[in-house]
């Protein structure tokens, strides 16, 4: 499945057809009263969480199968909850924002623990289930342990970290850094491994991702309306995908179908990308799996469900409005 959100407050769930690179609308989730700035699937894709822009003090969690609103987290009216991340057990999540709120919550919306004064730009759990990684307004990613309330510095950039994601092993992190582009960090050795070239990254929030077969590839949107694909070990792009007419603010590979890549743009569309039919036929004949370095063209385009298309926003104004299902079901 694939989820999209919009500034018109609606959240939609789509069925993905990997063979035809097409989407079919499944349902619309009701109840969100702010523009949708960030979406996050639970590890088993049974729940979907939605955050709003900077002025949004609430977070919504739906049970996807029934479409029912499970939880509306609203701790204080002055809060800003613009980012969230699920614990690996799927029963808890963290939420935070640029005004200094940082909460650990359960599925009922109860705040189990909080950390004061942490201005959060993006969040992710480490695979150990104990440590939360948080990008803050000091250009850092720090680790926070809610069990013993200890924290430590993981890495430091010289420019604002607009977003970040962690690969499936938990060792590598991919950062979109303002005016610098996409950086790959080794979280264990705490070193900058690689800087990827080609994309245009200013102060808009753009989400990149690991993916493809064995997570050997990296993709990112760009402010020049393109999608860039790299091999994880190469700084220069393998492919540049064109078709969007405005900033591409989020990309996501389908984890079940690693040849399938989705992108969302300020032009109000979601596009699916994959190998050309010729590449797929050749791969099937050879009993091998086509990978994204053969990506050719958008197999499908879905127009945004809002007449007011989602915007890429400056540093402290939220996140992209697209995310892929964690299990790609």
From TrEMBL:
Annotated compartments: Cytoplasm
Q: What residue spans carry the Polar residues bias annotation?
A: 318-329
Q: Which Gene3D superfamilies match?
A: YVTN repeat-like/Quinoprotein amine dehydrogenase
Q: Where, in residue numbers, are the WD repeats?
A: 1-14, 29-60, 241-273
Q: Which SMART domains match?
A: WD40
Specify the superkingdom. Answer: Eukaryota
Q: Which is a GO BP term held by this UniProt record? A: proteasome-mediated ubiquitin-dependent protein catabolic process
Which is an annotated Pfam family here?
Answer: WD40
- Mark out the compositionally biased spans (Low complexity): 282-317
- Chain positions covered by the region annotation Disordered: 282-329
Does Nucleotidyltransferase show up as a keyword for this record?
A: no
- Primary site of residence: cytoplasm
Report keywords, A-Z: Cytoplasm, Repeat, WD repeat
A GO CC annotation given for this chain: GID complex
Q: Which PANTHER family match?
A: WD REPEAT PROTEIN 26-RELATED, WD REPEAT-CONTAINING PROTEIN 26
What is this protein called in UniProt? WD repeat-containing protein 26
Q: Which organism is it from?
A: Daphnia magna
């Amino acid at each position: 499945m694939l989820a999209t959100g919009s500034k018109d407050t609606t959240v939609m769930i789509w069925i993905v057809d990997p063979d035809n690179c097409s989407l079919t609308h499944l349902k619309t989730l009701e109840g969100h009263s702010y523009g949708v700035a960030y979406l996050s699937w639970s590890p088993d894709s049974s729940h979907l969480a939605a955050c709003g822009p900077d002025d949004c003090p609430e977070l919504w969690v739906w049970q996807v199968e029934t479409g029912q609103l499970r939880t509306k987290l609203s701790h204080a009216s002055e809060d800003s909850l613009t980012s969230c991340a699920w614990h690996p057990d799927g029963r808890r999540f963290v939420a935070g924002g640029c005004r200094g709120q940082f909460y650990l919550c359960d599925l009922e919306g109860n705040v189990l623990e909080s950390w004061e004064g942490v201005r959060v730009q993006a969040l992710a759990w480490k695979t150990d289930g104990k440590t939360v990684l948080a990008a803050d307004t000091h250009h850092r990613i720090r680790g926070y342990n809610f069990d013993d309330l200890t924290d430590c510095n993981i890495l430091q950039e010289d420019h604002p970290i607009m977003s970040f994601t962690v690969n499936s092993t938990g060792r590598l992190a991919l950062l979109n850094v303002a005016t610098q582009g996409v950086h790959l960090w080794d979280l264990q050795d705490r070193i900058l491994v690689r800087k990827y070239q080609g994309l245009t990254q200013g102060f808009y929030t753009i989400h990149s991702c690991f993916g493809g077969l064995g997570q050997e590839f990296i993709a990112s949107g760009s402010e020049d309306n393109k999608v860039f694909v790299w091999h994880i070990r190469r700084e220069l792009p393998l492919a540049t995908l064109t078709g969007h007419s405005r900033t591409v603010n989020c990309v996501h590979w389908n984890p079940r179908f690693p040849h399938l890549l989705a992108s969302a743009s300020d032009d109000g569309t979601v596009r699916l990308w994959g190998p050309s039919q010729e590449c797929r036929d050749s791969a099937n004949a050879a009993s091998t799996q086509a990978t994204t370095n053969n990506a050719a063209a958008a197999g499908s385009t879905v127009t945004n469900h809002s007449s007011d298309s989602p915007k890429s926003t400056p540093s402290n104004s939220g996140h992209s409005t697209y995310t892929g299902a964690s299990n790609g079901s």
